[in-house]
Amino acid sequence: MTLLEAHDIRLVLDGRPVLDGVSLSLRAGEVCGLIGPNGAGKSSLMRILAGLRRPDGGTVTLDGRPLPTPPDGATARRLAYLAQDRDIHWPLTVAAVVALGRLPHRGPFRDNGARDSAAVERALTAADCAHLRDRVATTLSGGERARVLLARVLAGEPDILLADEPAASLDPLHQVQVMALLRRLAHDGRKGGSDGRAVLTVLHDLNAAAAWCDRVVMLHAGRVVADGPPHAVLEPDLLRTIYGVGIARGMVDGQPVFVPKR
Ligand SMILES: Nc1ncnc2c1ncn2[C@@H]1O[C@H](COP(=O)(O)OP(=O)(O)OP(=O)(O)O)[C@@H](O)[C@H]1O
């Protein structure tokens, strides 16, 4: 079942085509990786799918209806967006930053109720931030900040998560934890609500894309050039053409590995 769908999206910035006829559908129960070189248009597409930017052409639908842009309350409860930018500008405690993720559920002028507090606790634990709860968020390391901002979107308990490079500044343990978390979020939703849940995540790490994604969409120069299972999209000839560097593919302990060649 398709939850979120972009059809023939076009975006022009500073007179330059950034997205040129992009179509992509996100289905319930899947983790879909969005890959492609720097400047391919990945973040621009994510912002359009999150309802934060209007495209110059094409349509985005959520549950078959036009996506409100900017998102309304019902949309914000269903769909969350984790931006690539990991800055935290407010000198709030980590617990307070994560609690902001409940805003779509409780409104701006009410305190968190028991259900909100429980969701915040679950999110702090899931993103391995519980021990940071009383720290002032602006004093955290880059990786710690990244996990806190992930916890903030998880606290909103979204059905659809759009995550822009969620594991980019994380150490190997936390990379694995975060990718496993995204996979659980999408796959466990299959068993739960009738509509299910889904994750679309921008990744530069091809190993992570192969290990964790059900499907990979490759963007190049504002166009989708491949869309399919990881083994089909992460194909050495295509990777060399798109990235402009040879990338060796092998298997280690039953897991595909990708190594850019010197
Ligand atoms: N506000 C803007 N004004 C003009 N050009 C922009 C603007 N935002 C993005 N661009 C350009 O649009 C193109 C796509 O940018 P985008 O951030 O979507 O790429 P990306 O695939 O996410 O790249 P990266 O992997 O480096 O994060 C780039 O060439 C970028 O310079």
UniProtKB/TrEMBL annotation:
Keyword Amino-acid biosynthesis in annotation: no
Record keywords: ATP-binding, Nucleotide-binding, Translocase, Transport
One Pfam family, short name: ABC_tran
InterPro entries: AAA+_ATPase, ABC_transporter-like_ATP-bd, ABC_transporter-like_CS, P-loop_NTPase
UniProt keyword annotation of Transport present: yes
Residue span(s) of domain ABC transporter: 4-246
GO molecular function, one term: ATP hydrolysis activity
Record function comment: Part of the ABC transporter complex HmuTUV involved in hemin import. Responsible for energy coupling to the transport system.
Protein name (Swiss-Prot/TrEMBL): Iron complex transport system ATP-binding protein
